[in-house]
Design goal:
The chain is α/β, with parallel strands linked by helices and 339 residues long. It has a domain of 114 residues: Orthogonal Bundle (Helicase, Ruva Protein, domain 3), CATH 1.10.8. Helix content is 46%, strand content 15%. Strands 3-6-9-1-10 form a 5-stranded parallel sheet. Strands 2-11 form a two-stranded parallel sheet.
């Protein structure tokens, strides 16, 4: 049986909760609206977020700002070359006094897990997060333990051409629902950042503005946002186009389609709507798909990034009911997806 579309009061509550969190995060980081939007949409879609950029642009600060805005448990893992899988998941300790083993949970047992510089650890340690991210559970010594609910991994990584980094395997990149690049701030945002430090670290002054129960309720609301057959076909067309693009040697997986639908529903819920519009899909398509596709060698040599290729795919993929034209007004798009 299909779950009912969320009622207006449910959407209003979800929107209000996410607005509080967005405002709280905005007091710490300036000029990162796109990254904050992707973070909150990923949270509502029950996914995991990967942030890639050069050091010092605020990746970890953004992750910590979200964690400090929500009243829940927080685990932080500083990935280094000598980090072991047990340092992530936990380990069983033998107790000699009663001849039993006691499990000591690792930092992954938290509502929000900040995986800092994830690609500085070895691939073996990176893969320790795979089960946790996909199954929301951890198996140690043959025993499977459930992780807290909600559960979100926010990982940061430096570009792979920087010293001491290991590229994330394709399987692990695919586990991240979205990837965003923070980028350098505008001069105005950078001045605001400097002003914000005059009275100390604004991150230290943050207090939670939402509980894990608030987030769980908002997640449940977002999951019931209506997506028409036309909206789902549009997502399938976009994902399918990545597999046929001449400059892409590895297209997006079926999991990518599922996750693009989830973040589109989250985007609609954050905007107080009970149905998905093309704007919800297009606004987060690059964040959801770019890290999953691999350009051909010729495309790389020509300087084409994954983000540019996804933008090309979006431009070439016609909107539902619009033929080859992409210039319809939002109201026309909304009517096309509401059929």
């Amino acid at each position: 049986m299909t779950a009912p579309v969320p009622a207006p009061h449910e959407l209003e509550r979800a929107t209000e909760v996410m607005h509080r969190v967005r405002t709280s995060m905005g007091t710490v980081v300036s000029g990162l609206d796109h990254a904050i939007t992707a973070t909150l949409a990923t949270v509502l879609a029950q996914g995991h977020l990967l942030m890639e950029d050069v050091p010092g642009v605020g990746k970890t600060t953004l992750a910590r700002a979200f964690a400090a805005s929500v009243h829940g448990s927080v685990g932080r893992i500083q990935f280094t070359p000598d980090l072991l899988p047990a340092d992530v998941t936990g380990v069983s300790i033998y107790r000699a006094n009663d001849h039993t083993f006691e499990f000591r949970p690792g930092p992954v047992f938290a509502n929000v897990v900040i995986a800092d510089e994830i690609n500085r650890a070895s691939p073996k340690t990176q893969s320790a997060l795979l089960e946790a991210m996909q199954e929301r559970s951890v198996t140690v010594d043959g025993t499977t333990r459930e992780l807290p609910d909600p559960f979100l991994v926010v990982a940061t990584q430096n570009p792979i051409d920087m010293e001491g980094t290991y590229p994330l395997p394709e399987a692990q990149r695919d586990r991240f629902m979205t990837q965003v690049s923070v980028g350098y701030p505008t001069p105005e945002a950078e001045v605001a950042m400097l002003d914000g430090r005059d009275n100390g670290d604004p991150l230290a002054r943050l207090t939670p503005v939402a509980t894990t129960e608030d987030i769980a309720t908002a997640i449940a609301t977002a999951s019931r946002v209506h997506a028409s057959v036309a909206a789902k076909r549009y997502i399938v067309d976009i994902v399918g186009a990545t597999r046929q693009h001449s400059a892409i040697r590895l297209g997006a997986s079926p999991r990518a389609a599922l996750q693009l639908l989830a973040v589109a529903r989250a985007s609609a819920a954050m905007n107080g709507r009970g149905h998905v519009l093309p704007e919800d899909i297009k606004s987060l398509a690059t964040a959801t798909l770019a890290h999953r596709v691999l350009p051909t060698n010729d495309a790389r040599v020509s300087g084409h990034t994954s983000e540019a290729l996804i933008a090309d795919v979006l431009e070439r993929t016609p909107l539902p009911g619009a033929g080859a034209a992409l210039s319809h007004e939002p109201t026309d798009r909304g009517r096309a997806l509401s059929r």
